[in-house]
Amino acid sequence: MTVELGHYALVLALALTIVQSIAPIWGARVNDERMMASATYIAPTVFLLLLFSFVTLVMAHVGSDFSVKNVWANSHSQMPFIFKISGTWGNHEGSMLLWLLILGLFAALVAVFGRNLPPTLKANVLGVQAWILGSFLVFVLLTSNPFERLGSVPFEGRNLNPILQDVGLAIHPPLLYLGYVGFSIAFSFAVAALIEGRIDAAWARWVRPWTLLAWIFLTAGISVGSYWAYYELGWGGWWFWDPVENSSFMPWLAGTALLHSALVMEKRSALKIWTVLLAIMTFSLSLLGAFLVRSGVLTSVHTFASDPERGVFLLLILVMFIGGSLTLFALRAGQLQAGGIFAPISREGALVFNNLILSTATATVLVGTMYPLLLEAVTGNKISVGGPFFNLTFGPLMIPLLIAIPFGPVLAWKRGDIYAASQRLFAVFGIALLTAIFSYALLYDATILSALGIGLAAWLMIGSFAEIQLRSGFPKNNLKVAWRRVTGLPRTVWGTAIAHFGVGMTVLGIIFVSSFETDSVKILKPGETAELSGYTMRLDSIEPRIGKNYKETVAHVSVMVDGKVVDVLDPSKRIYNARQQPTSESARSTFVFSQIYLALGELKGDNSVILRIWWKPMITLIWLGTIAMFVGGAISLSDRRLRVGAPKPSAKRAGAVHAKV
Q: What does the alpha-carbon distance between residue 410 and residue 468 come to, in Å, rounded to a whole number?
């Protein structure tokens, strides 16, 4: 009966969502305060119903209730506890329930913490968010019911897909969904502002923290997913340009552009039209990603479903929200004023350049992702667009952006001086140049391009703190005065510097592993060794091992330096009992920021085994950099100016002034 209660909670949530989608928006139109305020109470109630429904499904998985089709198809009584929980969202139906929960969560957060929002804007935002939530509730109830019962209760479940039985995949989807589903609230702010016809600097200040919150989680989600693919799939790579990987990367690029564009709009009341369009396009790319993952148009380890009926339903949602919002934008665009004026050489100009590059990069990834699908749909011909295309198009686009990043914070608002900014960055340039020269001279097999890449990373990492050094006045000011100034800086300044430093760390990791990675494939018997990049790998033994719900063959490999054992690694090949599906479990040994990476191949009849060995220099910097981006974003979000938002106007002033822009 508990499972049925979870289903009924979804139905009740849909009924309340319909009310939320109509009453506050109509109340804003007729200036009825009670109708507008209704959403403040309905949104948290809907979230609690969705939370109850989600917890109900989790409990069914934890309790191995195989009368529920979703549990039977994605669980097993012998699965470890954590994977029983993660199995809840390791499938299409459960992940859609998580999608609904996050849509409801962001609506509830705006309802509870949006006290400083103008009543009409808040009502419209919650109403638009209810449109999105209601559409997906109908989709789940009609095509993807996670609580569907089986006619007869099986004795045992089919087990969760073995490659999903990993801690990384337990936390990757929730983080990812908090990110690209979280961008729905920026979309709702944009559509609400277009409905109201009021878009100003205060709107940008209200929307920026919500956008930043979604961006933080999406950054973490992409990072965890990348590291999971790196160690779990046994291929040794960290990014494959898989279409489904791209479907989360595109909203991240557009969301990054939106953050910077909203900053210009907040500070200078400029880029209003562009910022609203970015807010619409960012979530539109998230919806496109949902369609790609769940429509069956792609075959990937990341995809959930291949039901054409679901694909058509999602396509209708896509057309409704993307087409509807862009139509509304087109109708309102002529009424929107461009806003403040600024010189090309200014902080605003640098941020516009940032937006130009990021938008072009997003379009490049979109074309590379969608072109093969459209070509196959139109002509029936299948082509593959992979790493070479993206490396030759996306990579060069990023170079001018990375060069420009340190300039932005040291330029003045409205009108800057590029010569003065260059003088402030002269020492940074000198250090970066010396880094490139020493890299070329000292690193084995370094090319001019790899050395310049290392120098570019140094330029970005050191230059990220140029604004802090400039504001401190050091060395003109003594250390005490400089420290007082530094500690008094807004948190957004520190957050921006740390996030940009993280970008530099990631770039440095990419340059090193792309330029200096080495690998070898060896067939070894116990006692034999293999050499790679100064390390010796000795195969000590091969043995079978039985896990809780799998059997595996494990190779014990000693990693030695100068004859001394520094680590013992255990790469393995697993067969899961329920599905009889093989997986490869890699093993890694970390040396500062670099790794030895081992993947086990086939076991030969003569007790020898194929061992794939990689030396991956500085590769952990790729993910350490994303952690720095996450931390930088979190520090910025903690700034009181973002948490408080724009001041709430007095009732007298609000009634007297209605500025349409």
A: 9
